[in-house]
Amino acid sequence: MYSEGFNQPCALEKTLMAADEHLGRSDLADFIRRGKKFQRLLDILTFQVYKVEHLNATRRAFLDLPDDGQIEPSTQDEWIRLAMKKYKDDEGYRR
Question: Where are the domains of the chain?
């Protein structure tokens, strides 16, 4: 599921979150629950993973958006075009 661009916890992660909650460690369960965004960021920064599905999934993870029902770019060119349009007035982009 993760490699296909989904951010939902896998069965093992769900089991670990339930165990943490049972032991009164909801703080640890929250780390697991929110961990996909950092896992995706690490993939992009260290492995330079630029598949459109992964870029879309990273965006959803950081914005806490659901995996389904989102209208997202389907190609890298479309992703870049939309980002350029969105940030066209950003001073850092114009340099």
Answer: 2-94
